[in-house]
Amino acid sequence: MSIEIKYMPLSFINTDEEILKQIKNTVLFSYLFQEFEETSLCHYLESTQYGYTASASEIGTHQLVRITDINSGKVDWNTVPFCDCEAETKYLLKDNDILVARTGGTTGKSFIVNSAPNNAIFASYLIRLRLKNEVNLQFINLYLNSYAFWSQIVEMKSGSAMPNVNAEKLKTLRIPKISCEEQSDFVTAFKNIEKAENLNSLFDKINEVESLFINSKKTINELTHQLDLIKQLRQAFLREAMQGKLLTSVTSSAVEKQATGHELLAKIKAEKAQLIAEKKLKKEKELAPITEDEIPFEIPEHWAWCRLGEICSKIGSGSTPKGSNYSEIGLPFFRSQNVHDSGLVYEDIKFVSNEVQKQMNGTIVLSNDILLNITGGSIGRCALVPSDFKEGNVSQHVCIIRPLSIDYIFLHKLVLSPYFQKLIFSSTTGAGREGLPKYNLEQFIIPLPPLHEQEQIVAKLEELMAFCDGLDQSIKESQGYNEMLLQQVLREALQSN
């Protein structure tokens, strides 16, 4: 056998049923490669043809089936668009034609035409394979849905910036050379393999490989479940932290002597008033008092409830430079894709010049700011700006939260807590692209412990999160070992006699 047959995960073959079908077909062709001489796919083909290049339209002389119209091995011809084609003889489809995707994420995926409309043609990103009259269609279909085929396709695609194959490459694919009569015999026997005496060894091999795959999937599912439990555990720790349940209990007399959240809130308000008096902050409309009905859960008596806007010197989103006027170097400009719970990500970072930044004065990011994504699919994702950060800017999809006189890490953890995230998702607006208005964010009610307890909570959370990190790492290593074992055993099984 001149090719190496490998099991490989494919993004468009993702159900267990479909993967097992591919494996089963591979066992057959591994056997056939051992028993028969090789030839190329061209041996079985009458012709190959690239599809017709045209734009899809609501009207036209012909229906134009595209890669995107083929879903789960079927085409809903009622939804296939139209085009005008003057060369229908060259592109017209007929039953038993095979269409193969020649580019994109589904390169190599095939579809057998059946009951197509009389005016159906195929688009340019597809290649039509038309078999010789005597060739058994199901035999070729088994091959096109096996890792004997996919191993060669993936090898052809390797090294390309854009995955693709062409008709000439397809013709060279290696395949067992089998007579038409034997093709039909193998197809028939394979459909009832448990009763096919000449394929007893294959039946046992298929059971062995299927059992291996199923057991491996069970392990993967269990490990995935464990990762989900760890995620829930992290959320539980954050939830308990914001309710004061991670603190060491102290006597009532000790509580009376220590600082309180109410005193801290009064101090912050006084500091804010001083900044306004010095014209370093603009005076804003006073936030409404918190009513009993608004309080979401119990907190220690010496803690205080406050609105987020009361403890911040700034809550506001950024803006995008006019004409997206970015620079090769300069000050970092953070967009939502750069803001992650674990910190700022500099991959695909943009920069703005000092001149451009002067036009965006209200969007300046400073050290220890908290950046919160307020629109789109990443809404709620939040990063704490490092303490050694100098200066940068943010886009309009990111909000700067700049607290006064509280532990920055504590507030970051609070924003990530289930309680705060629930507030975010219940306060978004906009049907097309959800967004969190500044006014809503300022109104959020949060618990405020005294400063020394904020520090205790942060220390305890970091200890607990490190424990979760260790569990995460252990489970992910087990996932990697399981995947490697599956790959190795399947590789050996698929290539053995």
CATH fold-level name of the largest domain: Adenine-n6-DNA-methyltransferase TaqI, Chain A, domain 2
Question: Which structural class fits the helix and strand makeup?
Answer: alpha+beta
Task: Please tell me how large the radius of gyration is.
Answer: 32 Å
Q: Give a short account of the largest sheet.
A: 4 strands, antiparallel
Number of helices: 14
CATH superfamily of the largest domain: DNA methylase specificity domains
Q: Tell me, what's the shape?
A: elongated
Overall structural domain count: 3
User: What is the total tally of β strands?
Assistant: 23
> pLDDT under 50 segments (min length 5)?
none
- With strands numbered from the N-terminus, the spatial order across the biggest sheet is 2-10-7-8
Helix content: 25-40%
- The CATH architecture term of the largest domain is Alpha-Beta Complex
End-to-end gap: 11 Å
What is the percentage of strand-forming residues? 15-25%
Mean pLDDT across all amino acids: 89
CATH class of the largest domain: Alpha Beta
